[in-house]
Structures are given as structure tokens and as C-alpha cells.
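Figure 2 data, in text form.
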Amino acid sequence: MENLFKIYQVDEKEVEKIHSSLNEAHQHDFEELIIGVKGKIEHFIDFKTHQYEAPFVCFVTRGKIHRVSPELLHGECLYWVLRFKSEFIPETTFNLYSNYHENANLQFKEGRCFDRLISICELIADEMRQEKPSLSIVRELLSSLFIMIEDERQKQEPDSLQLYKNQDTTFKNFLSILEENFRRPEGVAYYAEKLFMSARNLNTITQNILQQSVSEIIETRKLIEAKNLLLSTDKTVAEIGFELGYTDKAYFTSVFKKKAGQTPSEFREEMRRLIS
């Protein structure tokens, strides 16, 4: 995607077009927000297939492998799709945590809350139709969408994101450093040093926010990338392990199986059967 931002609708005609095309699992270099107003969706993401009826929201962070199969419900289908580059809006809590939780899809109830999401989408679309659209207005409206979505998520999962402001800032910085360095064979001490704090304090913060140690989060990020590479490339297990900082193929396979419940080769075979 060349532009910073794009919004469009998926309707019944688009559903027919998607079903007649080669709809393969893929990853992209932009963020994608899907707001389902009518119809159903079959969404392959986080290496699982989920099915939802509208109203729903799906958020796909950059780099995640996914496949959307829109479906009619009572002969109708209507989605709003918003695509934007990561730099278009500042990192949000929604964005950050969706990388580490399997929560890309959120079921909504019909009513005022969801109606407001639709109204904002209509305002954004109207602004983008202008001869010279104001991206600053679009940016504010998009940020409002995420605030409303995250508010609904916290109502549904009140204990999932109990953040402390100062810890939240440190945690965001940790994730930013991790994103640049997770392929390297670095441990907790490396990240703590980058953040000018002790490993113990960093572990306390990650435990409070994600209920995981720093080591677990590092391994989770490596696992996500390993799964992406197993699914999207023909690289060998050894090559993928080496790319992620594991010099021993057997050790990489052992770590992968411990966290994923199957070997890298078994995972690759299962995913290819699932999305073929």
C-alpha cells in the first residue's frame, strides 16, 4: 500500500469477487481494521480459524499472516475496511497488545456503541472523498475508533489490561526495543540495560501487564516469527532457527514444541493443510 491511509467497503459484489479469486493466507506491511456491519466472516489469524457474525471488529497488525473469507448472512454483507501505515497514528494499547494476545477479533453487540463506530467510518470515508482530504482529521477519527474499540474490549475483559501509566510507558519502550532485536540471541539483561533498569524491575512490569516474564515474551515474539516463516517461506527448520538466534536446530525444535505443542515441521504441515 503506497498511501498512508485507505478506507473502502466490502459488499455483496465484493464477496462474490473474493470467492472467485485465489484467496490465500498472506501478510502485509500495513495495519488493517475490519468493522463488520452485516454478514459473517471466517478469519484465519494467529494460526487459528475464527468465525463471527456481524457486528464484529477485526484488527490485523502489520506482518501477521491471515486470510479473510467474507460470507453473506440473510443475503447481505457489509464491512468497513481501514488500512493504514504504522506511522500514520502513534502506537496504541490496542495495537501493542494484539501482537501478544490472540485477540485480533472482537464480537460486538448491536446498539449505541457499535453504531458510533459506523458513524465514525462514514465521517472518515466522507473526508477521504474530498478533493484535498485532511489527514489530520482522519487521524483523529481513527484514533477515536481505537479508543472506543479498546473501551469495549475492557468491558468484555475487565481484568485483561489493568495498566499503570508509568509501567505502560516502560513496557511500550521494551516492546519497541524487542521488535528491533528479537532475532538476536539476547536475554533479559540486554533489554533491561537498554531501559536503564534492573532485570528484576523489568520482569515485575511485564508480569503486572501480561502476566509473563521478560523471557517468555521474548520467546513468544520469536515463536510468532518462526510460525510466520514456516508458513510463508520454504526455509528449512534449521535456517529459521538460525535466523531467530538459535544455533542448535534440536534446541530450537525443543523450544518450539514446548510452546506450540508440536514440532516446527508438524506445525508447517498442519497449517498448509488448513489453508490449502
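Caption note: The beta strands are 5-10, 31-38, 40-45, 48-53, 56-60, 66-71, 78-84, 105-107.
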